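hi! just following up on the protien thing from before. the input was this:
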Amino acid sequence: MNDFRRFPPPGLEEDVMPTAKRSKASAKRSAAKKTSAKAAPEAEPVSPPDDSGAQPAAAAASGSAGGAKRVLLVDDDAEIVESMRTVLESRGYEILVARDGNQGLAMAETEDPDLVVLDMMMPKRSGFLVLEKLRRSRPVPVRVIMITANEGSRHKAYAEMLGVDDYIRKPFAMDRLLESVDRLLAD
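and the predicted 3d structure came back as:
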């Protein structure tokens, strides 16, 4: 039986990181804040490319009204976001991007995505806090895939307790992400 009383409260997951990783993660977040303030607009909706060639997964990416399924990527790592964006757009999904937890939560509430791909450790609000808020505030829960570099099994157990639909550890193959997105958005 899992004992969640020993689990660090959401938002304090950095306390379980080794000191060397904490320093690197803090520096990374500081750099991401500076670059996202300069380069990233509030919302980055992107329409899927108009391909004349048939793509088998593009049919799965279309919504019930004929529009593309919308996927919100919430991650402070620009390289990971761009990799996920490229792969998901090639499958016909419409991509929205948020660079921190607060922006992700605001976009989830205003943009009503079909799926959220959520990093666990981010500036301003952790993925756990975003997930908790999404589960409490929506009458019909949005599908959520949590991605993380954290190896701890307690984090996975806590995410599952909060109702995450899938949990993927970094680094991951894009095929693994695509399989999960396609499965969760299949009607």
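The CA atoms of residues 58 and 92 lie 5 Å apart.
The first strand starts at residue 70 and ends at 74.
cheers
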